[in-house]
Structures are given as structure tokens and as C-alpha cells.
Write a structure and sequence with these properties.
The chain is α/β, with parallel strands linked by helices. The protein is about 30% helix and about 25% strand. The protein has a five-stranded mixed β-sheet with strand order 10-9-1-6-11, with helices on one face. The protein has a five-stranded mixed β-sheet with strand order 13-12-14-16-15, with helices on both faces. It has a four-stranded antiparallel β-sheet with strand order 4-3-7-8, with no helix packed on it. Bound molecules: zinc ion. Zinc ion binds near residues 254, 258 and 264.
């Protein structure tokens, strides 16, 4: 893990100099690229009021509410260190020497400078969660009884919501449970099954319908989810009995994060890594963590959803679009083989 972190740190350091003083998001993101949890203190630059003292777990990223400029402090080799930070900024803690921590800023490729924006330079409290109502469905290939299935899925959504609330202030609430008949033969793709699911299932009273198919992966299609991109009304997941509960939770968090605008990450411990089938989630004590760029992407989409719960991805505000584009350009640059970020860039440009 450390090797990857060092490599990423060196990649992103190059861009620190290219940063602009512009960002508009009302959070900053701090990623912990060390192997220990780090206690942080975020304070206002101008007043004693408003402080946050969160701890960011090893390998994880956290959003911290801030409007404008603030001071971020932590202990480094027994001494306090303070850095000036800015809302919209994406930062990472890394170890430069034994217990010596430094804060770096992740640069994005196309800085945008906006004039005339006023900020209060205050630290906020984490906002109430934005709630996305979800209808969940199982198909005729599911072997569990309705009651057992519902209990299992509700518990999984509660865990997933707790993780997403921490990373971007969003919860997914199950508001309806139903079943649908999936007629696709086993050998066809999850993509074809999603098309069918979209035709026969109305997400109401949810904003989003999530189908869990009991049809198992085949040699033709090993995908675990079928989706069309962020804020799309339908999502299909494979319910695999070979996977542990924690692996299925990780899959659900990954899929819901895509819904919230997260693309794939080259950071191989992130829940947004390209290949989830690597058994990481089977190791004892495994924690579901996010990389910093996707944490910021989800925070941007969550703020937009707060304004319009029925928002389409192509209709996000111009400011959010600018920042999301910068994130996706960077993610696409970091992993040129993965096409998710490029696909999201195209979706953003469609309206
Ligand atoms: Zn994915």
C-alpha cells in the first residue's frame, strides 16, 4: 500500500504548483496516505469559533466543511504543524520521514479562476444528510424468502449509507421492496438485463430502482453491476452467494458511489478501484475507504442533489461541472486504460 501511496504522491506533487485559488465546493477533502489514523484540527482563519476535530483513518479520505480559507493542524513527530487550506482543495497527508507528516495538495489539470466570489472563511458542521429514496427489487432467480432477503438488503443499505454519509453526506433509504421477473437467459449480459429492468420497473416511490439479480455470473459476463452513469434512475447488481456479506457491501458502496459521480480510481485500496474481485474485502479488518478525488466528486454531486433531488447528471450547475470535469480529467490521466472517467466527462457535456 505504501508503494502505491508514494507513487501517487510523486505523481500529484508535480501539479501542486499549478493550483489556483478558485474552488467553490464548500468542503475540502483530506486523504491520509500514511499507515496510521491522523487526528486533525480544522479552524477558521479569522475567528475562534467553529472548529472541527475529525480523525482520518489510514488510507481513507474525509470531507471537511469549510467556506473559504482555514487552518488545518495535526501533530508531526510530536510537534504541531499547521497549513493554510481552502474549500474545494483536495489534500493528502504523507509521511516524509519517520513520523514526520506533511500536507500536500492534489493539483488538477485545468484550473479555473472565478472572480467576484465571496467567502466567509468559516468552518461549518457536517450538514444533514441528503436522502435518496430507493426502491429495491429481487428477481425470480433469488432463492431466499422475501422476509430474509429484505432483512439482508436493508441491513446492507444501512451500512452503505453510514459509509456514504461520512464521505459525502448522502444516505440511501429503502422506501419500497418489490420483485420483478427477469426473462434474460443466463448467457446474456448484465447490460441486456439492465435494459429489460428499465422497461419493466418504475422506480416510484423511489428516485432510484436497484435490482438485485440472483442470476449468476457466466463466462460471458462477469460484471457485478449494470449502470448507465451518475444519477441514472435504474441500477442492476448481481447478488452472488459466493461473496461474503462484506464483499457485497463493498460492491453496493461502489455502485452507489458511481451513482453519486465517483469514477474509477488507480488507488488500489479505494472502494473505487477498477477491480473489486481482488479479495481485499475478505481480509480480516478490511475497511471500505475512498480516494480523495472521488470523495470530492461525490461531495460536489451531493451539494447539487441538495438543491434538486431529481437532478440529472447533465444538468449540474456550471460551477460543479467545471470542478467535476477537472476531477475526471485527472482520473482519466492517472489510469488511461479505464474509461469510466472519460465516459462521465461525455455525460457531463451532453446538455
Ligand atoms: Zn465500477
Amino acid at each position: 500500500m505504501m508503494d502505491t501511496m508514494r507513487r501517487l504522491a510523486s505523481l500529484t506533487l508535480v501539479f501542486v504548483a499549478a493550483m489556483s485559488a478558485d474552488a467553490r465546493a464548500s468542503v475540502l477533502v483530506v486523504s491520509n496516505r500514511t499507515e496510521k489514523p491522523v487526528a486533525l484540527r480544522l479552524a477558521s482563519l479569522t475567528s475562534a469559533a467553529g472548529q472541527l476535530t475529525p480523525t482520518v483513518d489510514a488510507g481513507d479520505s474525509l470531507p471537511l466543511p469549510l467556506d473559504g480559507i482555514g487552518r488545518l493542524g495535526f501533530m508531526s513527530a510530536g510537534n504541531p504543524k499547521t497549513y493554510r487550506v481552502q474549500s474545494g482543495g483536495v489534500y493528502y497527508l504523507h509521511e516524509v520521514d519517520e513520523n514526520q507528516l506533511e500536507l500536500g495538495r492534489i493539483g488538477l489539470s485545468t484550473p479555473v479562476v472565478r472572480k467576484g466570489e465571496k467567502s466567509s472563511n468559516t468552518v461549518g458542521q457536517p450538514p444533514d444528510a441528503v436522502v435518496v429514496p430507493v426502491k429495491v427489487l429481487y428477481d425470480d432467480a433469488e432463492v431466499a424468502t422475501h422476509a430474509r432477503w429484505e432483512a439482508r438488503i436493508r441491513e446492507r443499505f444501512e451500512h452503505a449509507s453510514a459509509i456514504l454519509r461520512k464521505h459525502c453526506f448522502v444516505e440511501f433509504h429503502v422506501v419500497a421492496v418489490d420483485r420483478w421477473k427477469s426473462d434474460e437467459p443466463r448467457a446474456t449480459s448484465l447490460g441486456a438485463a439492465l435494459k429489460e429492468f428499465e422497461q419493466v420497473v418504475d422506480p416510484a416511490p423511489g428516485h432510484l430502482a436497484i435490482g438485485f439479480t440472483g442470476r449468476q455470473a457466466t463466462q460471458f459476463d462477469r460484471a457485478f453491476s449494470g449502470a448507465r452513469g451518475p444519477l441514472h434512475s435504474h441500477l442492476l447488481l448481481r447478488e452472488s452467494h459466493e461473496k461474503t456479506d462484506h464483499e457485497q457491501l463493498e460492491q453496493l458502496v461502489h455502485a452507489l458511489a458511481h451513482y453519486l459521480g465517483a469514477a474509477h480510481s488507480p488507488e488500489n485500496h479505494s472502494v473505487m478501484r477498477t477491480k473489486l474481485n481482488d479479495h481485499q474485502a475478505r481480509s480480516a479488518g478490511h475497511r471500505i475507504v475512498f480516494d480523495p478525488l472521488n470523495t470530492m466528486a461525490m461531495c460536489l454531486v451531493s451539494e447539487e442533489l441538495r438543491g434538486d433531488p431529481r437532478l440529472h447528471f447533465g444538468d449540474v450547475s456550471a460551477a460543479a461541472r467545471d470542478e467535476l470535469q477537472r476531477i475526471y480529467v485527472e482520473l482519466a490521466r492517472l489510469d488511461r486504460r479505464d474509461k469510466t472517467a472519460a465516459a462521465y466527462l461525455r455525460r457531463l457535456g451532453q446538455n
